[in-house]
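Supplementary Methods. Inverse-folding protocol.

Structures were first reduced to a discrete structure-token string of length 336. This string, shown here, constituted the complete conditioning input.
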């Protein structure tokens, strides 16, 4: 007799659905891939065919070029792939991010969450809880110590620092897809209505968010004309974390280095990056939201991937819940 666990199996390429003949977020090129969101560790170029939300397909084209796949299919409502019903539902992680629900009449339903967050995010659609037999969940912050604070409270710390040090530029490290736009929106919600200067690596994705109705406000290139360094005193500049390791950050007046990431709760990581003002702003579920999700959805099985698997497996055991680790490789924890 078939069970829900027959819906999915682990292969070297990644998570595979045998009755559907497709992979989900594969780490190697495959004939057919369903993609949860546009971060590079989940969305890779070179697949024969890709199904994803329209926004994720657009983002992949921006990042990889229009020929990133042989063919593309927009996920729009429930669709049948071979004998499997497939639907995409908001994950609350980044623009276009989705959980993928797959159902087979003889095996049941599985939901692959990809990366997800239950905190309000003004830059993307909110997480949608989906009942299922198998829940495949990330475990990026799956330790009880990880409890993300109110992100607006973290932004308030930036604004307080600007008030205290008006002669210094405030540089915020934020990943180009998702985190940068969320930080910008949080700044707007907190009352910062002035210009926000952005590194060139953020421009195309910020422009795309604006085209999708995300009101990022007045964005300007973070370029310095000769003799105009002082113009950035008291200003906010966003750039990818990689730019902060170069001389780019030192072009600005006595910069206060900030970094927006859930990992900023770990002080050693902030010190390693030379971060003066760590901002604990995460686009992943923390421990309370992760355990709440499992409790709320009450799946027959929980499959745990990429992160702190052992702690969550132990929690499931203590709760009398069936769980297993997937040990998938190729997903990076730093995309937060």
């Amino acid at each position: 007799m078939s069970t829900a666990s027959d819906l999915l199996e682990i292969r070297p390429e990644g998570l595979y659905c045998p009755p559907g003949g497709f992979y989900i977020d594969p780490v190697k090129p495959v004939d057919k891939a369903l993609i949860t969101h546009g971060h590079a560790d989940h969305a890779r170029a070179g697949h024969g065919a890709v199904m994803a939300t329209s926004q994720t397909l657009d983002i992949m084209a921006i990042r990889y070029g229009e020929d990133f796949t042989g063919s593309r299919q927009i996920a729009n409502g429930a669709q049948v792939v071979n004998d499997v019903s497939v639907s995409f539902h908001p994950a609350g992680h980044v623009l276009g991010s989705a959980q993928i629900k797959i159902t087979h009449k003889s095996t049941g339903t599985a939901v692959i969450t990809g990366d997800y967050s239950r905190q309000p995010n003004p830059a993307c659609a909110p997480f949608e809880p989906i009942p299922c037999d198998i829940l495949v969940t990330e475990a990026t912050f799956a330790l009880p110590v990880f409890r993300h604070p109110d992100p607006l409270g973290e932004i308030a710390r930036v604004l307080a620092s600007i008030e205290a040090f008006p002669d210094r530029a405030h540089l915020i490290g934020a990943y180009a897809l998702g985190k940068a736009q969320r930080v910008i929106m949080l700044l707007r919600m907190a009352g910062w209505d002035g210009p926000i200067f952005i590194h060139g690596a953020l421009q195309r994705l910020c422009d795309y968010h604006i085209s999708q109705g995300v009101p990022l406000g007045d964005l300007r290139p973070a370029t310095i004309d000769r003799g105009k360094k002082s113009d950035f005193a008291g200003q906010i500049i966003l750039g990818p974390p990689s730019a902060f390791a170069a001389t780019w950050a030192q072009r600005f007046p006595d910069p206060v280095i900030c970094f927006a990431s859930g990992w900023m709760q770990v002080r050693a990581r902030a010190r390693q990056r030379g971060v003066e003002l760590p901002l604990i702003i995460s686009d992943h579920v923390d421990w309370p939201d992760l355990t709440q999700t499992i409790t709320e959805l009450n799946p027959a099985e929980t499959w745990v991937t990429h992160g702190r698997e052992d702690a969550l497996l132990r929690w499931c055991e203590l709760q009398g819940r069936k769980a297993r680790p997937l040990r998938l490789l190729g997903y990076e924890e730093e995309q937060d």
